[in-house]
Amino acid sequence: MDKENLKYEEAVAELEQIVNRMENDELNIDSMGEQLKRAQQLIKLCKAKLTKTDEEIKKILAEDDE
């Protein structure tokens, strides 16, 4: 799935799957690096979406105060 179209909930679910596989020793050394890179991308995506939403909420609240 294209990361631009990935929803926040989907990104979190994928992160949880990666963590579960790591905790259950389901990843070998070769795939662990790849999964860590993917997790890093997902975390960056989630942070960006949260920041954008936070800014939108602040803007809406500021408009209500005017």
Structure description:
It is a single chain. The protein is 80% helix and 0% strand. It has two helices and no strands. The longest helix has 37 residues, at 29-65. The chain has 66 residues and is an all-alpha fold.
Measured between the Cα atoms of the first and last residue, the distance is 41 Å
Structural class: mainly alpha
Overall body shape: rod-shaped
The amount of beta strand, in percent, is under 5%
Our count of helices gives: 2
How are helices and strands ordered from N to C?
A: HH
* Rg of Cα set: 16 Å
Name the average pLDDT: 90
Low-confidence stretches: none
Question: Strand tally, please?
Answer: 0
Portion of residues in helices?
over 70%
User: What characterizes the major β-sheet?
Assistant: none
How does the SSE layout of this entry go?
Layout: H1 8-23, H2 29-65
Helix pairs in contact: 1-2
Describe the structure concisely for a colleague.
By secondary structure, the chain is mainly α.
Task: Provide tags for this entry.
mainly alpha, about 80% helix, about 70 residues
